[in-house]
Design a protein that fits this description.
mainly beta; seven-stranded mixed β-sheet; 3 helices; 12% helix
């Protein structure tokens, strides 16, 4: 008689989803659509010829050992906005780290706006995230990642954990933007340091690549005024860094900035639901 197993591993989330668009009679249409396990995509009806994709992690959050991958491609002459149904939550890890991998491709004369809602890191959560983008030299791209260190209104405190975020943006095969963020160990103490967050609990990076980059600098600086925001333009790109005391304050800065970058179009509707 076989002895019962006592080393049963906890269930872990795995998911991958892929979407590719194509142009049909001047409108953005589906070319490839694939989803597996917890990674789902929903496409609300659109009437303006553009497409919006809403990403959903059906597991309801991430913890150590979970793996999610998103692959989005805007084919030539198409316009695609990608967002998420809700904030992604990274819960306490009992071992290992969660991993989110995002790969974006933007074809000739195409537009891709990567606008996920905020990621919320809880105490003892562990997340490694990568964003890899390939742009055609005639493409337009907006990229956003926002992070909350717990929710201030709920009294949540992130004492320890791991957050690693890696961006690589290439245009016509040339690396135009690279950054790595690492918060590890005593995150609470790190976030209190002035060169990090100076005691704030929410931060975001917005990146714009496109023909309006230089013209947007003065408008964005006027929009933010004296708030904790930095706007820089170099190497054909526009980079915006935002820091706020909590998530609500961060959103009040992000929503008008997103609209300005989107030439007056509002943030995706799911942001307001």
């Amino acid at each position: 008689m076989l002895a019962p197993k006592t080393d049963i591993l906890p269930q872990r989330t795995k998911g991958i989803a892929r979407l590719v668009t194509k142009s049909v009679a001047g409108k953005t249409r589906l070319d490839v659509f694939y989803q597996e396990s917890a990674a789902k995509i929903r496409i609300p009806e659109s009437y303006d010829g553009r497409m919006e994709a809403v990403l959903i992690n059906t597991s309801g959050g991430l913890t150590g050992g979970d793996r999610i991958e998103w692959q989005m491609e805007a084919g030539a002459d198409t316009a695609l906005t990608v967002t998420t149904q809700a904030c992604e939550r990274v819960y306490k890890s009992s071992g290992g780290h969660a991993e989110v991998k995002t790969v974006l491709k933007v074809g000739a004369r195409s537009v891709l706006h990567w606008l996920p809602q905020e990621t919320i890191l809880f105490d003892q959560g562990a997340l490694r995230r990568t964003l890899d983008v390939e742009l055609n030299e005639t493409a337009e791209f907006i990229g956003l990642e926002a992070v909350l260190m717990g929710r201030k209104a709920m009294g949540e405190i992130v004492q320890t954990g791991l957050f690693r975020d890696r961006w690589r943006i290439r245009q016509a095969g040339r690396l135009i933007h690279a950054e790595d963020v690492c918060l590890a160990g005593d995150i609470k103490a790190l976030c209190r340091r002035s060169p990090v967050l100076g005691g704030s609990l929410a931060f975001a990076t917005l990146l714009y690549c496109g023909p309006r980059a230089e013209a947007l600098v003065a408008k964005l600086r006027a929009l933010f005024g004296e708030s904790s925001a930095g706007v820089s333009h170099w190497n054909g790109k526009l980079v915006i860094r935002l820091v706020a005391a909590e998530g609500y304050d961060l959103r009040k800065m992000l929503i008008p900035a997103i609209s300005l970058l989107r030439n007056g179009d509002p943030a995706p509707k799911v942001w307001n639901l």
